[in-house]
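Lab notebook, design round three. We kept the backbone fixed and only want residue identities now. Task for the bench partner: fill in a sequence for the structure below.
Input structure tokens:
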């Protein structure tokens, strides 16, 4: 077991009192597998992912247990910055808000490489170009020099995937990485993620509101509703014989 979450609770303070976004969530990701986390907007999926990365805003209250790789390596009790990028990386839904619009794409990826590896600028540049080839970007040298606004949505997402791979992580969290893309580009990105998982032995937590997308990429699925996990199991089993009414409703909404 690579990642284990046990009885996770996340509470946000507000002017009208506290809001519990995540309630007693327990799930795990095994080495080499993809776990799909599915649910409608506001169900707590992204908040759960951000808690793993240690990116929730202060003064959010987080209780429970999140362990990575070893039972004694508690993410909530240690500094997430030691794991962030080098062991666990995240791809966000909208790459335009994740990429800095005033810096060239190549510079942003080389900065990520040098953050996690003691290499020269020239070596980091070579590694960035190699990553651009790995994520199937056309003309990597041109993309390296380009600003984010000069790229298509699919190209920007591939740059974000390259940046996530810069630290050679063991776990990749993909938070709705294809939602903002058209169907053709979406399929290409899913195929790329499957290939990267096979080549690098990555484990993946793939978040989506779409069970159809989850069925294409995940081994197991956890269904989340109003901050709670209501159903979990192998993808094929859950899709064929959903137990919870909410899961059946998600299936009914598939195109």
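Proposed sequence:
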């Amino acid at each position: 077991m690579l990642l284990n979450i046990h009885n996770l609770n996340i509470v946000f303070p507000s002017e009208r009192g506290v809001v519990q976004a995540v309630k007693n969530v327990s799930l795990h990701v095994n080495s080499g597998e993809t776990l799909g986390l599915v649910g409608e907007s506001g169900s707590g999926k992204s908040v759960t992912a951000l808690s793993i990365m240690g990116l929730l805003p202060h003064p959010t209250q987080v209780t429970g247990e999140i362990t990575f790789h070893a039972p004694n390596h508690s993410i909530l009790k240690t500094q997430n910055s030691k794991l962030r990028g080098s062991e666990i990386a995240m791809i966000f839904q909208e790459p335009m808000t994740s990429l800095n619009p005033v810096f060239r794409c190549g510079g942003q990826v080389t900065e990520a490489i040098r953050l996690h590896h003691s290499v020269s600028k020239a070596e980091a540049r070579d590694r960035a170009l190699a990553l651009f080839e790995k994520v199937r970007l056309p003309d990597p040298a041109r993309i390296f020099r380009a600003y984010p606004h000069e790229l298509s949505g699919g190209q920007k997402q591939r740059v974000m995937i390259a940046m996530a791979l810069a630290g050679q992580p063991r776990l990749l969290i993909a938070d709705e990485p294809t939602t903002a893309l058209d169907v053709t580009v979406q399929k290409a990105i899913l195929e790329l993620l499957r290939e990267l998982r096979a080549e690098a032995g990555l484990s993946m937590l793939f978040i989506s509101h779409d069970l159809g997308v989850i069925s294409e990429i995940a081994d197991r699925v956890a269904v989340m509703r109003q901050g709670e996990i209501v159903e979990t199991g192998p993808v094929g089993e859950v899709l064929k014989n959903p137990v919870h009414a909410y899961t059946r409703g998600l299936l009914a909404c598939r195109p």
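Keep this in mind before ordering anything: The chain has a mean pLDDT of 91.
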